[in-house]
Design goal:
alpha/beta, 4-stranded mixed sheet, globular
């Protein structure tokens, strides 16, 4: 079982194509590409933490989740309403979460945090919301699809270029 993170899919939202300059001719093309990329990366037994802003219409959440591989958790974003939260298919729904991955504390929130629990003890903050446009702090990563080739990513993939954090990448990858 692998552990993946993503955010800001905005399935079904035509505004996202223009606002965030996504390279898709239509919402249908965007949704199809996001679903294909998700399922190519994520297996049925893998776990995915979606850090918010899933879809435009809450009624689309349950049918969409049924098409996506993995056990799915939601950390709420500013565009996720009560209907999205209540949709069948989420293993859990919360505003904020903390996980320990390979001995490293990982703090999950839709919003990029200026400071977070354990920040000065080598913890990592994963977030969405900024669509790849925010300069990160050390050990902070935007997991949104706009910053991650339109697919979920593992923690090891995100921190691989950040070798200056010591052996964290090696601990997480193992």
């Amino acid at each position: 079982m692998a552990l993946f993170f993503t955010a800001d899919t905005h399935f079904g939202d035509h505004r996202t194509i223009n606002i965030h300059r996504r390279p898709f001719a239509s919402v249908a093309a965007m949704d199809a590409a996001l679903i294909a990329a998700w399922n190519a990366a994520v297996g049925h037994e893998d776990e995915v933490w979606h850090l918010g802003d899933v879809v435009r219409r809450a009624a689309d959440v349950a049918p969409l989740l049924a098409r996506l591989n993995g056990v799915k958790h939601l950390v709420l974003g500013n565009n996720d309403d009560a209907g999205a939260m209540a949709a069948a298919g989420w293993a859990s729904v919360q505003h904020y979460a903390e996980l320990t991955v390979g001995g490293t504390l990982v703090v999950l929130c839709h919003y990029p945090l200026r400071s977070w629990n354990g920040q000065h003890r080598r913890s990592i903050n994963l977030h969405g919301h900024s669509h790849g446009r925010l300069k990160p702090l050390l050990r902070q990563h935007d997991v949104g699809v706009d910053a991650r080739d339109y697919r979920p990513a593992t923690l090891a993939e995100m921190i691989a270029p950040e070798r200056r954090v010591g052996d964290v990448a090696e601990r997480i990858a193992s």
